[in-house]
Amino acid sequence: MTLEASLIIPMVICVIVMLIWGAYYMYNRAILSQDCYILALRASVKADAKKKVAPADYVAAGASKQAGGRYFGADKPAFSAAVSGKEVKVKGTTKIRNSAMGRYFLKIKSGWELEAVLKARIRNDPKHIRRIKRLKDIGEKVL
After folding, report:
1. Cβ within 8 Å of residue 22, ≥6 positions away
2. Considering only CA atoms, which of 113, 81, 121 is closest in space to residue 97?
3. Mean pLDDT by 10-residue block, N- to C-terminus, for the chain (143 residues)?
4. 99-to-10, 15, 20, 106 alpha-carbon distances in Å
C-alpha cells in the first residue's frame, strides 16, 4: 500500500462514518419532534375532554409507548410536559451515542444531545360549535 492510500483511505472511511452519524442525527431529531408533537396534541385533547387527567400525567404515562423502539443509535428519550394557560408544551431529550471510531482523529468527543420542544393548544371544539349554533338559533328567532 502506498503512503497516499494509507492516508486517504482512513480519511474516506471517516467521512463516510460521519455522514452516517449525520443521518442518524437527522432521523432521530425528526422522530423526536414528531413524538413531542403527538404527545402534546393527545395531552391537550385528553385535558380538554375529561379534565380528569392532567397533561403532564398523560405524557408521563404515554411516553414509553409513543417512543417505542424507533430511536436508532440513541438513548431512550425522556419527555416532560408543562401547561401554561391554554397550551401544553412537551419537551423531549435524548442523546446519540457515537463511540464507534475509538480514538480516530475526527471522532466526536462527546455524544450529540437532541432536544425538541413542541406545543399544542387546548381547545374545546364541541363547546365552541354549540355556542355558535346557539347564537345562530337565537339570531334566527330574533330576526
Report:
1. none
2. 113
3. 81 84 86 90 74 77 82 84 87 79 59 85 78 90 85
4. 17, 15, 13, 12
Spatial strand order in the sheet of 78-84: 78-84, 87-96, 112-121
**Alpha helices, H only, the chain:** 3-49, 55-67, 125-142
Among 82, 96, 80, residue whose Cα is nearest residue 29 = 96
- Could you tell me if 91 and 80 are in contact, meaning their C-beta atoms sit under 8 angstroms apart? yes
Query: Domain tally for the chain?
Result: 1
What span, in angstroms and rounded, lies between the C-alpha atoms of 123 and 83?
13
Range of the domain at 109: 3-142
